[in-house]
Each structure stands twice: as C-alpha cells, then as structure tokens.
Prior knowledge:
Elements: E1 13-15, H1 18-24, H2 27-39, E2 42-43, H3 44-51, H4 55-67, E3 71-73, E4 84-87, E5 91-93, H5 103-130, H6 136-141, H7 153-173
Parallel strand pairs: 1-5
Antiparallel strand pairs: 2-4, 3-4
Helix pairs in contact: 1-5, 2-4, 3-4
Amino acid sequence: MAESEGARPAPSAVRIDHRQVRVLAHPLRIRLLGALRVQGPATATTLAELLGTNTGATSYHLRQLAEVGLVVEDPDRGTGRQRWWRAAHDVTNWEPTDFDDDPDARAAVDWIQANQVRLLAEHADRWFAVQDQWSPAWRDAFGMGDIFLTIPAARLHALEAELWQVLERYREEADPAAPGAEQIQVFLAAYPLLKGK
Length: 197
C-alpha cells in the first residue's frame, strides 16, 4: 500500500542487544543519541555546542555509537571533512530480562533506567523554576499524577503496550508547525508498591 502524500512514516525501532546496551550506558552517548532524535541530523561540532562538551569527545562517542548501529553517518549532508550524523532509529526497546545472562549488560540497563529517573527529576526541577512563565493552558497540561493498581504481570504488560500505542499514535499525528506546538517528553513508569523501606 502506498503511503499517502504528507503521511509520516511509522517510527523505526530497535530492540537493543548486549553490545548496544553496554555502549549506550554512558552519559554523553545517551545524550548524543537523544539530541539526534530530538534535533535531527547534526555534526559533532553542533552537538558539542548543544551539549556543552568538546568536539573531540563528541566525535569519539558518535563513532562508538556508530560501531553498534545506533547512529549512522548522513552522507547526503556531508561536505568535505564535515561529517553529519543521525539516529539510526526513532525508538530504543528492550526488556530488562533480555540481559539476565550478562552481568555487564544487566549493569548497563540498570544505569540507563536510573539515568531516566535522574532525567525526569532534572526536567521537573527545571519546569518548576520556569512554570510561571508559561500560559495557564500549558501549566494545566503539564505535570504528573499517579494511580494505584493491583494487577498481574500479564495485565501490566498489556496496559503498557496499550499506553505506548496511544503515545505512538499522538506522535505520528503530531504537527510541529501547528500554532502553539511545543516539544514535550512523556515518561512512562510502573513500579511495585514496596512495603516497608
């Protein structure tokens, strides 16, 4: 079936393997991949300026990500010595149990998940510092909430899958040129309600 004109392609996804997860578990590498996904193709110099680091480090870590297929060169944009990079996929997937047989990969996944929690806390702190500068409509739209459920693991998997489908649908239908459109980041988390400490 031909894609209709103007339709956005479905996001590409990768289920990362042991080698990829070990490479990704690095503060600058995870930021580089995120920047390429959000900002689009860029040079090492542009990324270094964006992320407050130096071009040498950025170039090195982009090559590390490229070795495992998480970023690729964008040869159509390159001119001479200037290399452009882009994310190879829109979405990175894994299940924590994918790495149960590899202690190093398991540690890498633990670091990535802990980094996501740190990132959420940092985003929230920055939002609280500037929220008064945003319109009432945006202040009411942003934020977070929680709910308590008692369900088996299979139902939690089904719930997460359904929520991801909703998020992907909104992502596919997004119009960045729409009046008042802003880039946002949605975190999805589910944890057990641990008793005691």
